[in-house]
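Researcher: Here's the sequence for the chain we discussed earlier.
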Amino acid sequence: MKRIKIAVAGIGNCASALIQGIEFYKNKGEDEVIGLMHYDIGGYKPGDIEVVAAFDTDERKVGKDISEAIYAKPNCTTFFYKNMPEKGVKVHMGKILDSFSEHMKNYDVFDKDEVFILSQEKELRKHELVKILKDSGAEIFLNYLPVGSENAVKFYAEGCLEAKVGMLNCMPVFIASNKEWSNRFEEKGIPIIGDDVKSQLGATIIHRILAELFNNRGVKLERTYQLNTGGNTDFLNMLNRKRLISKKISKTGAVQSSLDIPLAPKNIHIGPSDYVAWQKDNKVAFIRMEGKLFGSLPMNLELRLSVEDSPNSGGVTIDAIRCLKLALERNIGGALHSPSAYFMKTPPIQMSDNKAKKLVEKFIKGEIER
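Model: Thanks. This is the structure I predict for it:
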């Protein structure tokens, strides 16, 4: 049976939703699968993905079987698959560096179940990472580290290059979209998709489509904002505004790319806004767009979106994993432009979602290389 073996760094809510989803869809038929481009991509179905290595730095997850760790605190996403069989894959202690914000250990302010508890295990070294990736047979490394983990992500990217493992960068540290990094992956013949995964139906994808609609219908967009609140550890982490720089660049660039003439920075505000503990993994987004119609008459649009945040990107990630596997089979190295444009907020080459989807279909069929 064909398998896609993946390693995952960051066993938080997104990893939990993904791994639950893989198991959830394993024994379902094509007509029962929701949220994927295709049930079968290149001969691979969702249940063909297998986690063979995992890394985290929270003491409630390190040393646990992945089947147990995905349900551990502070994870708070909906557990829609509760009978996960033991996988025989223990969570390794990861690399600390900047992979968490100090305020997340503040038990006096936040509930202990919400915050980070640093494992006392000896942290991972690069040669150990490379050995684990090789010994496990991992083909693809999936990065789910918290926003702002610039140095930690680069540590794992170096490990991927040395172990010759494909990389899927689901968060906004710019690797695939950085020319220097993408060149290194291309020189090694290793594929990468990134950066910062889109949701199936999230605030940014809706904001992008609305901006494109304004553009196509001749509406002059003058000002817009997107404000997001949530109660998971991602939002708690982003209370440290210094860690938000790359996230704001990623989300803002994704919307600006849909406009013929980008808005001035003072007229566009997009980014996480606040942490509301009781929302848990529910994300609420508020979008406002102001512009002018025919005769310079004013108009405005307001939208409120409420979604379970982490599962919202699970299907997109499954599709991206399978596209990376095809690239590995075809010996394609470097950034995969069309999959990155369709699956990620900050790809090496921005393009409309319709165009990107058509090109991904061609990539899957082998009609284009990347």
